Amino acid sequence: MSAITVPDGTSRAPLDPSKLVIKLAEVLNAVPEEPVLGRTMTDHMLICEHDPVKGWEAPEIRPYGPLTLLPTANILQYGGNAFEGLKAYVGPDGRPRLFRVEKHMERFARGARRASLPDIEPTAVIELLKRLIAVEARWVPDKPGYGLYIRPTIISTRPYLGLGPSEHAILYIILTPAAPFLGAGRPIALYAEDQHVRAWPGGTGEYKMGINYAGIIGPQAEVQLRGYDQTLWLFGPDRCITEAGIMNFFVVLRREDGDFDLLTPPLDGTILPGITRRSLLELADAHTTGLTTLSGLPVHRKIHTHEVVVTMPQLRTWAEQGTLQEVFCVGTAVIVVPVGRIWFEGEDVNVLRRVQGDADVSTSASECVSSALRDRLVAIQEGRVNWAGWSVAVDEL
């Protein structure tokens, strides 16, 4: 790989997987039967440091353990970081698989640039990630709905106080096995929040950065004390829906012709461009154009996708009118989770599908768009369905 030339004319070494050093742990931990996301880490991690003069040093796979930072490190003082989240799954052939890893790493690189951190080449991170997964293959759960959660992170280690772009950085990747998250399909309850704001236009809401998450912990804790699972973040006087907790938000409406409208807020800079979000929109379009048929949905039932502003008053009206078919949230950890009720303006809005006496409506209520999309997505992630090269065995990347 060629060196990177910077504005002052000097060259810095790029992130180079060929220089990888592997130091294995002498004693391996037991893999839990029922893992909890983030509580149990695998035996090894990957780490690489960026020097402001030399560039990226040799990456290393080594036993999982603490980082060494100065008290003045930028990450501790100003929060300079970016991270990513994706999963590895076990395919029918027993090999670990990664889902749309290129899209995840492209988003990771965009976040690093927004945080003024050293450039990271997505293909280099993918190669290093492959090597780490190969070392930790026994940690990829071989159960339906389970996966190995992958957290690549880059942090600024700029060693002195003061704001500015950082050429001091650490890139690391850690792994944690994960069982199905957020009730494994149980409808969740949301609390529509208009006193706090998760993100705003021109900010960093579209990036995976720590500063987007620290500020939502307090409001989220208050919501859970009230008996709700997640915060539904609203923005502006019209109370536009943005995200639910840290998930993308979807609405399904029943059309007069029997088809469905699938709505999700547009990527306006306040919303994370989720890989699951994007994948579900593309699968819905493929069903509508006849490229595939989602299980549980007849071929003639089309799903018309829309990336449009959705307000909470609109959602309440659709629920009252009986137009509302489903509400659900999506993300890497949860995949797809249905919503049962949303607190708004002093009362709960029931957003579960309504089954009326009419035979056609009763029949249509069994046609669950979120379940159909989730089933197809999980089948692709686990390699049971081959679709558009989205899921690839680690040794084939």
Automatic annotation (TrEMBL):
Keyword Amino-acid biosynthesis: yes
Record's catalysed reaction(s): L-leucine + 2-oxoglutarate = 4-methyl-2-oxopentanoate + L-glutamate; L-isoleucine + 2-oxoglutarate = (S)-3-methyl-2-oxopentanoate + L-glutamate; L-valine + 2-oxoglutarate = 3-methyl-2-oxobutanoate + L-glutamate
EC nos: 2.6.1.42
Any Gene Ontology biological process: L-valine biosynthetic process
UniProt keyword annotations, A-Z: Amino-acid biosynthesis, Aminotransferase, Branched-chain amino acid biosynthesis, Pyridoxal phosphate, Transferase
Superkingdom, taxonomy of origin: Eukaryota
InterPro entries: Aminotrans_IV (IPR001544), Aminotrans_IV_CS (IPR018300), Aminotransferase-like (IPR036038), B_amino_transII (IPR005786), BCAT-like_C (IPR043132), BCAT-like_N (IPR043131)
Family matches, as Pfam families: Aminotran_4 (PF01063)
N6-(pyridoxal phosphate)lysine: residues bearing it: 208
Cofactor dependency: pyridoxal 5'-phosphate
The keyword ATP-binding belongs to this UniProt entry's keyword annotation: no
Leading EC class: transferase
Record-level Gene Ontology MF annotations: L-isoleucine-2-oxoglutarate transaminase activity; L-leucine-2-oxoglutarate transaminase activity; L-valine-2-oxoglutarate transaminase activity
GO cellular component, one term: mitochondrion
Protein family membership: Belongs to the class-IV pyridoxal-phosphate-dependent aminotransferase family.
UniProt protein name: Branched-chain-amino-acid aminotransferase
Taxonomy of the source species: Eukaryota, Fungi, Dikarya, Basidiomycota, Agaricomycotina
